[in-house]
Write a structure and sequence with these properties.
Helix content of chain A: 40-55%
Order of helices and strands of chain A: HEEEHEHEHEHHEEEHEHEHHEHH
Strand content of chain A: 15-25%
Distance between the termini of chain B: 10 Å
Largest sheet of chain B: none
Distance between the termini of chain A: 90 Å
Largest interface: A-B, 26 and 24 residues
Order of helices and strands of chain B: HHHHHHHHHHHHHH
Radius of gyration of chain B: 20 Å
Structural class of chain A: alpha/beta
Number of helices of chain A: 12
Strand content of chain B: under 5%
Shape of chain A: elongated
Oligomer: heterodimer
Chain lengths: ~290, ~325
Amino acid sequence: MPRRLFLLLCLLAPPAQAAIEMTDDAGNKVRLERPAARIISYAPHVTELLFATGLGDRVVGVIQGSDHPEAARKLPQVGSNAAADLERIVALQADLVIAWLHGSSIRQLERLRATGVPVFFSNPQTLDDIARDAERYGEMLGATRPARGWARQFRERQQRLREAYSAKPRLRVFYTVSLRPMYTLNRKHFVSDLLATCGATNVLGYLEAVAPVVDVEAVLKENPDVILGALRLEELRAQWSRWPQLEAVRLGNLYSVDPDLMHRPGPRAMDAAEILCRKLDGARQRARAAR
Amino acid sequence: MLSRPRWLLPAGVAVVALLCWSIALSIGSVPIPFATLWNVLVGDETGIARTILVDLRVPRAAAAFCAGALLAVSGCLIQVLLRNPLGDPYVLGISGGAAVLALFTMALGMSGWWLEGAAFLGALGSMYLVFTLAAPQGAIHPPRLLLTGVIVGAAWSAVIALILSLAPEAMLRGMVFWLIGDLSGALSAWPAALALAAGLLVAIFYAKDMNILPRGELAAAALGVNVARVHYVIYFLSALMTAASVTSAGTVGFVGLVTPHALRLMGVSDLRILLPTAALAGGTLLLAADTVARTAFAPQQLPVGVITALIGVPVFLFLMRRR
């Protein structure tokens, strides 16, 4: 009897191909019996990264707002940050869902996991995390070599920026996401890593909340050299030109940045970093000229 | 309770109000010591302390005070009109109408005066809608008014929920802050201050008649009160004052419900005293709450509506137990 049971178990055992196990950014172990071939990308940055590493053809469905690259716009949409269309995801026969850790649809995705679809949460907080994400996707999709190659190049670009800007005079920057309410991002958000790469410090990065609402007084007190806003330049000027005693206003160091580039921890974040570093270097030159 | 001079409570509230004003102007990310407050305010120095005081703290404190005062007076009036202790400036759906139009303009990406104008327009529209539904023949029947207000308010809540679920993610935060009540974006305290002064004057003018209303409409009429006219005055006055408050501060909860009750529990029932005292007390409550909201975790800011409830509930329960 035990012998027959053993034989039966042998028959049921998975094929020789080794299972892939990976820890995601929520601390969960994600286990895949074979490399994923049908992927739901449940975050715009994930879509961009999969396409950038040449794995875009495995994506069968995307979250609303996956507007880059062009090819991603044609893919079926399977929900938004507020709610996932679970039936659609199941119907697409996905064998891996990669999602951002912050969406309010996390509870729904947990249910999806319970039905047996592996869900991997990604939450890159630095530029290096993006390279690491590419490597982890590569392993889960059985395409380690191209993913590693891409990650190496990505890291080299960051290294070049660091070499060019880290020795220059450090700039103190206030970063605004919106004006009503006026909120900024703290050190844990990857915008702070972009700033650091360009030789700048986020003056309110020490706050505990990731996206804290702050008041004008706090900015007057910190008196930053540069004010960046993910807003239109006119809005930024209208808000801050009332405070000419601010160093940033006096020097004319108000800059508008593109929220899509700055806030998406995907492959284009390095483009954002390069643009940002050049802007900040302009700010640095103004500061030097004023002295 | 022994009979106290009638001015004692208003005077006490005034002292607390003065204290709260001084604290509100003195603390923040850049502390301005109590002792130097006056010198900075009237002196001719042009440092950062003066800028912060004159351009940031005074306008914001004034906006908070006026919004709170408007809500408290409006709450007193509504409780008299409905003869219902749960009467509150928002119970008649006025804030809901303001919120719907305010959120809608936010969703369109507009702000500033557009937003305040839309909120005011929404409040007026809702006021008109509730009135025409509740009093088709022109006479206000309080229970019917209350029911109509609650139902219209429920409809607004549904529309608000719809806007919140369809709005782009990036705008949600601004919307939620507006709904909880937030003074960081108040543009100018002047419209609210004018509304407060005018509203309070008219209300006090009619206070004598309103004092008689709780005895019943028949008794009031027998005593020579034009009940229908007083009902009109109360309804439109409280609605306009609520609209003015919501326009500058968003839908801050609790102040309008609790301030009148608290003062009544402390023994004020004559509306000629209650109305101005409520203005002072409501203004002070919202000013104190806003000071806590912007300094408790400074430089991080909280929406003021959270704090009004956190301060107001225990104070109110304490007063009620003491009785």
